[in-house]
Design goal:
240 residues; alpha/beta; 6-stranded antiparallel β-sheet; 5 helices; 12 strands
């Protein structure tokens, strides 16, 4: 894959402990919704045993003018350097990679099961599908501890008003620790929750991404519900 130097335009906190970084898109750079990039700091002021590179899914949709990367801000040398990058600073980008992409048959529903920062490729895929305006049923189940922890929550909720084919279900597992009111689903994603919105669980193609434990739990849940393993696509987010 070709390497690019991309310039930071701006950065913003999009959830508690989570930041989005907007970079200029290089001329001629093409990627598909759901893909990722290997990102390497250029001459960082510090480093540690985890190194100067990380893999980040594009949170931006291909039609958008910026490249958007979003991440939880753990206390590592890489994340500290990333957080302090000033507009105009550059990052090495080796991309695109990955096959976590929407299937072609629009007659088969797509169901996304995600948690935490796993929402980044899902945002890319959903926004691109909306932009292309091809009728297809998309359901997104998004689990977080609290609303404050949920990146892109309001944006993805508001998209429900633009398409009858799109269903967004956010669920919170620790609402008692939240300072805001929550009137949506609560608890972890479960078989009962999926059946409530999907109906026949054997019909869709499923996309699972998030922490490894969550991915394994969702695979097990779907397997016990009779979903064919060929209809399950996964991507693990570890060490973020």
């Amino acid at each position: 894959m070709p390497n690019y130097k991309v310039k930071l335009k701006n950065k913003t906190e999009i959830a508690e402990g989570t930041m989005a970084f907007h970079f200029e898109k290089p001329d001629g750079f093409i990627y598909k919704a759901g893909q990722f990039a290997d990102c390497t700091l250029i001459a960082p002021s510090e480093t540690d045993s985890e190194g100067d590179s990380r893999a980040f899914s594009f949170a931006s949709a291909p039609y958008e003018s910026d490249l958007i990367l979003a991440t939880r801000m753990r206390d590592t040398a890489f994340k500290r350097a990333l957080k302090t990058m000033a507009p105009g600073a550059e990052l090495n980008l080796d991309a695109p990679y990955g096959s976590f992409k929407l299937h072609n048959n629009v007659n088969i529903p797509a169901v996304f099961l995600t948690a935490g920062i796993g929402i980044t490729p899902v945002r890319s895929i959903v926004l691109q599908a909306m932009h292309e305006n091809v009728p297809r049923r998309i359901l997104v189940f998004y689990s977080n501890r609290r609303p404050e922890d949920a990146a892109f929550l309001n944006e993805l909720r508001e998209l429900r008003e633009t398409s009858l084919d799109y269903t967004f279900i956010a669920t919170m597992t620790q609402t008692e620790k939240s300072s805001s009111n929550w009137d949506g689903e609560t608890g972890h994603i479960s078989k009962a929750m999926l059946q409530k919105y999907i109906g026949d669980m054997t019909l869709p193609i499923y996309y699972i991404d998030g922490p490894p434990a969550m991915v394994i739990a969702m695979q097990t849940l779907l397997g016990e519900a009779g979903v064919d393993e060929d209809n399950i696509r996964t991507e693990e987010f570890s060490g973020y």
